[in-house]
């Protein structure tokens, strides 16, 4: 192997487990290693990729803890963290991938990654759409919104839909899907800028700043005097408690995430769970990877809507792999507006 094929490879490495409290940028560090731009001799069904865009997602907070019995493994201190991203194949010993192919899926937070389990990847066929969309709208976040709203909540035209963390990567899409179906949609977020986006850019019927509401139950009664049919749950905690008081009979709750709880040592108690009995509410947690077999069906639905400009998608773009720790931490203090992603390279 010629020396000139040895290149520098910057990596985002977890320094130590962060079991409680808000993670800090100093819990991660940028390290530089070298990598040969070739799959090692004798390694079958592997691909070497150049990472282009990385996706910052709330579930990554839990992977910074030492986890037992989790659907997704902990990050390893001293090793690069991993997550969803968009990448270009540089070398391949896998029959389904060739040099130059564009893919999205699980990759390392580094400039180049050797992927020995490319089953976690999707080949990008629609290259006429922005590649960054595959970190969100056309990737995991889009599939999460689609799965939770359509598959879990089985929505009907005219229903009352509430979305928390509504300006985030998933929430902004749930609201727009609900509007396309003819539902009444209200979202909540944590700043005036985000509320303006929800109402003026994403077409929500109403939106409110949860930080300005001393009584969340009263706020929901104001926006949903007849109650909520569908709640897309992203935050948990006090918001979930208030929603449970306001669900309609046969309401559905898709539990996507609970970002308000991720930094707590012990989760907050949920006090109003008993209301799901008389109201016959169905509440279901889900993991999007269980539904990836529906990805072609999702693309069939969403791509025409994107091309007809019926769906708007806002991205918050951080430049350079060095900015990745700051971008990831920003998710947990509401710094991002829209889908947070990191540009590692543009080609």
Automatic annotation (TrEMBL):
It comes from the Eukaryota. Transmembrane segments: none annotated. GO terms for molecular function: 2-alkenal reductase [NAD(P)H] activity. Keywords: Oxidoreductase. It holds the Pfam family ADH_N_2. Residues 10-120 form the Oxidoreductase N-terminal domain. One of its GO terms (biological process) is response to oxidative stress. InterPro entries: ADH-like_C (IPR013149), ADH_N_2 (IPR041694), GroES-like_sf (IPR011032), MDR_fam (IPR045010), NAD(P)-bd_dom_sf (IPR036291). Residues 169-301 form the Alcohol dehydrogenase-like C-terminal domain. PANTHER family: PROSTAGLANDIN REDUCTASE, PROSTAGLANDIN REDUCTASE 1. This is Enoyl reductase (ER) domain-containing protein. The lineage of its organism: Eukaryota, Viridiplantae, Streptophyta, Embryophyta, Tracheophyta.
């Amino acid at each position: 192997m010629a020396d000139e094929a040895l290149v520098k490879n910057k990596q985002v490495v977890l320094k130590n487990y962060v079991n409680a409290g808000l993670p800090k940028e100093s819990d991660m560090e940028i390290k530089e290693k070298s990598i040969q731009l070739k799959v090692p001799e004798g390694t079958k069904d592997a691909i070497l990729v150049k990472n282009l865009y990385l996706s910052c997602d709330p579930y990554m907070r839990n992977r910074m803890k030492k986890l037992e019995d989790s659907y997704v493994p902990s990050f390893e201190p001293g090793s690069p963290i991993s997550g969803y991203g968009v990448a270009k194949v540089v070398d391949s010993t896998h029959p389904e991938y060739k040099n130059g192919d564009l893919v999205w899926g699980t990759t390392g937070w580094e400039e180049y990654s050797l992927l020995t389990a490319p089953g976690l990847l999707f080949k990008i066929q629609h290259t006429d759409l922005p590649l960054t969309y595959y970190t969100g709208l056309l990737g995991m976040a889009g599939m999460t919104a689609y799965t939770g709203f359509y598959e879990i909540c089985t929505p009907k035209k005219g229903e009352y839909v509430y979305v928390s963390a509504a300006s985030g990567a998933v929430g902004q899409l749930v609201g727009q899907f609900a509007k396309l179906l003819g539902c009444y949609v209200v979202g909540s977020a944590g700043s005036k800028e985000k509320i303006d986006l929800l109402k003026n850019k994403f077409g929500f019927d109403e939106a409110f700043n949860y930080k300005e509401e001393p009584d969340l139950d009263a706020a929901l009664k104001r926006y949903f005097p007849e109650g909520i049919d569908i709640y897309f749950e992203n935050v948990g905690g006090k918001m979930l408690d208030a929603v449970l008081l306001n669900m309609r009979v046969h309401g559905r709750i898709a539990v996507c995430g609970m970002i308000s709880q991720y930094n707590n040592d012990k989760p907050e108690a949920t006090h109003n769970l008993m209301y799901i009995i008389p109201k016959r509410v169905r509440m279901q947690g889900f993991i999007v990877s269980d539904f990836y077999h529906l990805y072609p069906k999702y693309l069939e639905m969403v791509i025409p809507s994107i091309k007809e400009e019926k769906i708007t998608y806002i991205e918050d773009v951080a430049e350079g792999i060095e900015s990745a720790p700051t971008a990831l931490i920003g998710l947990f203090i509401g710094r991002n507006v829209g889908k947070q992603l990191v540009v590692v390279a543009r080609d």
